[in-house]
Fold this protein.
Amino acid sequence: MTFLYNYIYYIGCFGLVFIGLYIILVKHNLIKIIIGLNILDTGVNLFLISIGYIKKGTAPIFSNPGINPNRMVDPVPQALVLTAIVIGVAVLALALSLAIMVYQHYGTLNLRKVKQQRW
Amino acid sequence: MVNPVLLIVVPLGLAFTVPLFGFISKKTVKYIPVVAMGFNLILSLLLIPRVLEHPLVLSIGGFPPPFCINLTVGPLGILLSAVIALIGFLVSIYAMDYIRKGSVEKYQMLYILLLVGATGAVLTGDIFNLFVFFEILCISSYALVAYFGDSLGVEAAIKYLIQGAIGSTFMLLGIGLLYGMFGTLNMADIAKNIKLQNSIPISLFVPLALFITGMGVEAAIFPLNSWLPDAHSSAPSSISAILSGIAIKIGVYGVVRVMFTLFGMPSIFHLLLFIGIITLLIGELAAFGQTNIKRMLAYSSIGQIGLIVFALGIATPYGISGGLFQILSHALSKALLFLAVGYMIYRTGSMDISTFQGIGRKMPLTSLAFTIGAFSLIGLPPFIGFPSKFLIVRAALAKKEGILFIVLIFLVLFATIIEGAYFFRVIQVLYFKENKENQDKKDAPFSALVPLIILTVFILFIGIYPKPVMKLLRLASWELLNKMDYIKWVLGAG
């Protein structure tokens, strides 16, 4: 159980990554695929956060002398995640607007039926 | 003092002022990318002599390198940024007349952002920053592929978006793993920490694999390239030229930078050789069977990427110079081909090769440009494709590793023959077939002919006199092969 206790964040985030990948690979509905992309993104963001996380850690505020530096959470991954979330939102918004256009042109969201172009 | 950060900041600023200019007057919008890329071109050319003397390392935010986001402007970075600016400049001149439908402001804004992403990705020295610029490039190219909003473009864009998004997530995962291991995002610092001899531990192999898959999607190396023919053939021709000329090269740059500078282990370079050869053969064979001209050019891009990856995988100074030379020659030739084809499609209203019968007499300059681009891509002597392919073949032959390289070179030359076959077929249709329907076609307008002529001049000039370019390429290949020098530039001698 200690393994589970120590690595629960990593297990959780890779679980999300694999769920996301599974959805993208298996589902045919475009909206479901976009949800899958979002879950994949969330998994990776959670992974980045958990790299720098310390249990019962605090924010790294150096002007407060009472905090022990060993208890500080690494702020860099959090900055990365902030950027990654913004990028994720942009991709998601674009994907949804393209989904609307796919529906307008093809009358379906099933990607199996959207195949004018092939090798 | 010219500061390399201006290469990123000025176009980025101009990109976001595009809607404001659109507010004042719709006509001014189309000049903004020309100004932005012209500025970048001049600045890159001014920086080249300084960078050749000593690479510029720029720390942003006032901290010394391992702690800040830094720009590392080495010979490779400045060379690629000059190529990006040159192609971007010429294509933006072309697009002034070519892009009339739809909301022009959005097109021009996304176009500048795409090129900013590309420039930033080649100049940055920080791996997360590389990811961010990569995403700027990718997101703007997803949107630009669907610019016309027709059914083909939308389908291609959504396919591209799904694959690209998975790829960039993998890359982010790789960055996370490396950060977890070494606690740094600076590429030189990570490179210093990775000391590989002959075997690679699984903890480093996973991030390497994630990086290659992640950036490989954008680079269109073999199993990850199913988006490319759709996206490149459905986009507006000016965007196809940029995607083929610039965007996929940035993917290759990413893969190569990670493999050479970050990991730098000789035994993984063989992987590049085999990926390259398979990509080359698949691309050229698929191109041979196409009847749609833009799809044919897109498959040919896959093939050329294969050749570039193959040349970089040789991992000798000549091999890498050859690969980088091929990047330059493919960027110029493929941009020329797509731009020339753009107006042929515009005039005939069809992408089918058979409808271009007799175009050679009616649109002489455009057809001549197409022919020169095709000859250069095949590698015929007076054009730029010849020295680059010659360098690659020579580098592979110099690598005395028995029968392996002989077989690989045989395959490369075989692919070139296929390439020749399908390009000559198009040229035959252009010049030696007659068609009554194409009697009243005019040549491309002046603003489109200018970039075509400039590209042709570059292709001829560098093809005849490749020496100065070769010197620059040798220094750039030195940057890739000598991981230690790169670390020393950024982190100092310590």
